[in-house]
Amino acid sequence: MTTSHKEPTEQGYYGKFGGAFIPEMLYPNVEELRQQYLEIMYEPSFQKEFQQLLKDYVGRPTPLFYAERLSKKYNTTIYLKREDLCHTGAHKINNTIGQILVAQRLGKNKIIAETGAGQHGVATATVCALKGIECVVYMGEKDIERQAPNVARMKMLGATVVPAKSGSKTLKDATNEAIRAWINEPKDTHYIIGSVVGPHPYPDMVARFQSVISEEMRAQLKEKTGSELPTHVIACVGGGSNAAGAFYHFIDEPSVKLIAVEAAGHGINSGMSAATTQLGRLGILHGSKSLVMQTADGQVIEPHSISAGLDYPGIGPMHAHLFDSGRGEFLSATDDDAMEAVFECCQLEGIIPALESAHAIAALKQMDLKQTDKIIICLSGRGDKDLATYMHAMEGKDELTQKSRPL
Amino acid sequence: MSRIKDLFNKKNSNVLNVYCTAGFPHLCSTLEVMNALQESGADIIELGMPYSDPLADGEVIQASSGVAIANGMTIEVLFEQLKAMRNEIQIPVILMGYLNPILQYGFERFCKRAKEVGIDGLILPDIPMFEFETEYNEILSHYEVDFIFLVTPETSEERIRKADKLGSGFIYAVSSSSTTGKNKSITEQQPYFERLKSLQLRNPVLVGFGIKDKATFEAACTNTNGAIIGTAYIKALENGQDISSITKAFINGVKG
Ligand SMILES: Cc1ncc(COP(=O)(O)O)c(C=O)c1O
User: Fold this and answer.
1) Could you count the other beta carbons within 10 Å of the beta carbon of residue B105?
2) Predicted ipTM?
3) A110 - beta bridge partners?
4) Among residues B43, B46, B146, B164, which one is catalytic?
5) Where are the domains of chain B?
6) CATH 3.40.50.1980 for the B13-250 domain, yes or no
7) Range of lowest pLDDT (A99-103, A371-375, A389-393, B13-17)
8) CA of A311 to nearest chain B CA: how many angstroms apart?
9) Does B46 participate in catalysis according to the annotation?
10) What is the helix (H) or strand (E) element at residue A263, kind and residue range?
11) A281 and chain B: CB distance < 8 Å anywhere?
């Protein structure tokens, strides 16, 4: 078994987490991908097209922004990695650009995807429009209701949005439906998973596509401070793709603390939470062995988070291993903590963050920060999609929107 | 000799394996359904252990699993229900399910209990061959529980031979690449069944997915040792009251 936190074994294991627990019906597709993904990804013509699209289409590199007022408030130095400025509004597109190019090289002519908040669905619909490839997105019925603008976006981009009506009707079930759809139509279809979850090689492939985030962080921090290494990198974790990307090139730097922030929902022990490392046990979900929130009988539990993108009862195997080995530090933020952090970021920095990303900002309050620390927060997405939730939160809560916030 | 081997020694064509979800339609109907199946002439009973996220199953079996979980079915409850089943049930009984609940129960503990109550085989579609060889094979053979592998029309000959070598009981030939309950044509799959037949595997072959009536059962049995019916039987149970008469009518309809 590997001791690497960054790269899995040939069978997809990070420590004791990972693997490919899939029915035989999916074996040919997953095996084809496993045998070819690295070769395809690192082929010069692939890299050329990928880098070009990241630059001209996604808008990379995204800025590393010194957050002066936030730094002052916490009496330390804080940078925001502005993934919210990516085309479509979140880091998700780094992965979908990569995977659509892989799908093309595998000769696939149809794409399926799952989505929670709709960010991954929009990012997938976008690259499918870009390449003229058919796109079907599975989305929980409950999420279709709470993320209406993203449903409209996907439809405008030409995707078919299929409501997942099974189980709890959220991200977990959308993922089940996407996998079932793949089983029923495996030949010419590629499944673009939206996070570092699923059977091997998905977690590794998605982490590699997202690793551009930390690659840029290093270069940008060096330019700004003369050193490539921050003291802390903070990212929110649903399945864990923005965190995997933000951690990737720092994993082998022991001086850099990797802080993953999960959604505590109403509180870890409230029965309404999505903090998988705190509440989960070793299990199997969506084709990989990892930590899973489940009953004593092994039925998967429906999690809760105010943010649809973090409302997931599992976590990528790479993160389970970071947690298990202690290399990563796992914190959590409640719905209320996150909402407070949304408005803090708005009023101190003039940036409206996604609810998911606000969980990362909310971690600042829990940390023992030194003035000499250099912290990078991965601001994984922008808050446009959450506007209805924010409008609702402001009703009758003047304290959230006090005009001036003296420091 | 194992009950499954014994069965195929006596009967090597038109073997009928019927799937039902444990704890469906009612928590306590498991044994009633099994008795009805045996009396009506089913050759093998495949009991589904309900799981919240059954990836290989279509809507009908998913829904029955949801009902069974809500009814309170768990592995522990199931073994309790099956404790005395061998006083009544003589035909082979296999358990079908997903790995996660079994891992929580403890894989070895599960195999031990399964053997104790008289379970003959196990179908867990999400255990891939690699994991089977490294983690589970030894435990299963220790407790003499057959492990049944799935193959599909896309499975290579090399892999089919490996499934045949590693697995025991029978080979589960998925009729076409799909989840359960989809109606892709069985007749169009004859070349695939003929190919399986020509491989002269050591294990018998049963066809599953999409078998629902006399015509599809006969088509599936033409080049194989038998077939497995699941979704159609669950639907029949959903629509009726008296388990015994529904089952009799259903099996008669299939065997004709
Ligand atoms: C802005 C944003 N951040 C984070 C996430 C969570 O995903 P991951 O943990 O894979 O980064 C999502 C998911 O929808 C998202 O939209």
Assistant:
1) 19
2) 0.94
3) A134, A189
4) B46
5) 13-250
6) no
7) A389-393
8) 16
9) yes
10) strand A257-265
11) yes
